[in-house]
Amino acid sequence: MSAESEVVVIGAGSAGLSAHKELTRLGITSTVIEASHRIGGRAYSEEITPGVWFDLGCAWLTDGDANPFAEIADGLGIALGRVTWDAYNNSDHHRFIRNGVRLGPEEHAACRRYYAETDNAVEAAAGNGHDAAMGDVMDLESDYAPPYLESIATGWGVDVDGVSCADNCSSSGQLGYPVPHGYGNLVAAWGADVAVTLNAQAERIDWSSQGVTVETPKGNVSAQRALVTVSTGILSSGEIDFAHGLPDWKIEAINGLPMGTENKMGIAFDRDVFGPQGRGHHTVWSDNSESAKVDVNGMGFNSVSVFTGGRHGIWLEKQGTQACHDFAVDRVAEIFGNDIRKHVIRSITTAWSSEPWTRGSWACALPGQAHQREQLARPIDERLYFAGEATMVGGQGTCDGAYRSGIRAAQEIAAGLKRGS
Ligand SMILES: Cc1cc2nc3c(=O)[nH]c(=O)nc-3n(C[C@H](O)[C@H](O)[C@H](O)COP(=O)(O)OP(=O)(O)OC[C@H]3O[C@@H](n4cnc5c(N)ncnc54)[C@H](O)[C@@H]3O)c2cc1C
Questions:
Q1: Among 54, 98, 116, 247, which has the highest number of CB atoms less than 10 A from its own CB?
Q2: Which fold has domain 7-39+194-257+364-416?
Q3: How many CB atoms lie within 10 A of CB 86?
């Protein structure tokens, strides 16, 4: 491979693909290289059973019709779950199950109050200019702390002692729509018209002379500019050798935004074992601290997604696929009873912390480091540009956020080249 383009785009996830499309729209040529054997990155769907899709990464189009992928899906004729299920969109319908017993109305109300008070405390901390860890501003002794802790461990992939209040408050996005055929499939269909060189890992990036040269196992790519869209997990791993090193401010930005881990276990059943009221979000926890978030029937099939995150999520991932499967089935049995066990057909388990091309699920700012997203997005020497979910303030950790970061970076490159608008 010795393609000569104006820009080399590193990574063919949502950010890299949108950047390429925007550069093309602006009349700028780009070559997209991708380390893995497929496009889409953290947008990836697999069939659990024939016709039943499971997203290993992104599953929900945050913000519904305001999400750029909603229009893209319509254009491609891909159906979205455009329904307003109270079970998913109304937080009062979130079900809490402690030690196998669903909270009654009074306890449920007390739990919701705890959530609201904690959210307020986190917002106050974010607003006062001292960016604390979420765990420092909440009542960790409350009876209702465990489900809240689980929501952060899965929502950020990091436990509350490692999550910045300011970063938590700057993130945006309501749950939105599911994609019954798979969000990953949607991204793959949208990106199918982009010529991507697969299995072409960027091993070294040299911007010391006039332009930029990227070394890959398939040969070198030279261009005037490079756009790096890989995760902060990859950036911090040292797998890409940035010739002459990155400036200190960029290294600080990468280190301030380590990857969190959320894992999912998708379980398909041979029938509807949930009943008419079963659909929706559940949080299960017990006094031996085995907790998880369980989304029931989110895609409209007889399946669930069981989520774990943070330290527990990483520990469980290391125990292996069977342990993850057993853990997930046990949590579903806590909600719907042991009878469900005989109806399990198959499961899929993710292992994002050890996924070689991301090394985690998404970036989460350390306490005091929320400002590093803007630094991560800043170009170096007007030749090395950065995009990807981690570069976003609002939209971080989402597929549409990654998409918008690619558009932004493409426009920055165009401005630098004095081209397009
Ligand atoms: C479990 C989970 C659940 C999620 N749920 C949602 C959700 O419901 N809704 C939502 O909007 N978002 C969700 N997300 C987040 C969303 O999937 C990501 O934010 C988004 O897909 C990231 O896109 P990206 O382009 O920034 O990065 P990536 O998708 O990671 O793309 C980067 C690409 O770079 C490639 N690469 C890595 N190293 C190299 C190298 N050296 N050379 C060349 N290429 C390289 C990678 O293989 C990858 O394809 C979820 C993510 C996970 C993991």
A1: 54
A2: FAD/NAD(P)-binding domain (3.50.50)
A3: 11
Q: Whose CA is nearest to atom 53 of ligand 1?
A: 361
62 lines ligand 1 (CB under 6 A): yes
Domain with CATH 3.50.50.60 in the chain: 7-39+194-257+364-416
Beta strands (DSSP E) in 329-406 are: 344-349, 362-363, 384-386
Q: Is the CB of 389 under 6 A from ligand 1?
A: yes
Taking the centre of ligand 1 as the mean of its atom positions, its distance from the CA of residue 98, in whole angstroms, is 33
What would the two tokens of residue 259 be? Answer: 């990857």
Model pLDDT for residues 308-364, shown as the tens digit of each residue: 999 999 999 999 999 999 999 999 999 999 999 999 999 999 999 999 999 999 999
DSSP assignment string, 50-111? TTEEEESS--EETTGGGSHHHHHHHHHT--------HHHH-GGG-EEEETTEE--HHHHHHH
Q: Which structure tokens are listed for 11?
A: 């990574």
DSSP code at position 405: H
Ligand 1 centre from 42 Cα, in Å? 3
Per-residue CA distances from 329 to 23, 70, 269, 313 (Å): 46, 33, 11, 15
Which residues are 284's β-sheet partners?
A: 97, 292
Residue 15, amino acid: A
Distance CA(150)–CA(354), nearest Å, equals 21
At which residue do the structure tokens 């993850």 appear? Answer: 324
State the span(s) of the chain assigned CATH 3.90.660.10. Answer: 45-180+262-354
- Residue 160 and residue 163: Cα distance in Å, rounded? 5
User: What separation in angstroms does the CA of 319 have from each of 288, 312, 314, 350?
Assistant: 18, 11, 9, 12
pLDDT digits (tens, 9 = 90+) for 45-70: 999 999 889 999 999 999 889 999 99
CATH number of 45-180+262-354: 3.90.660.10
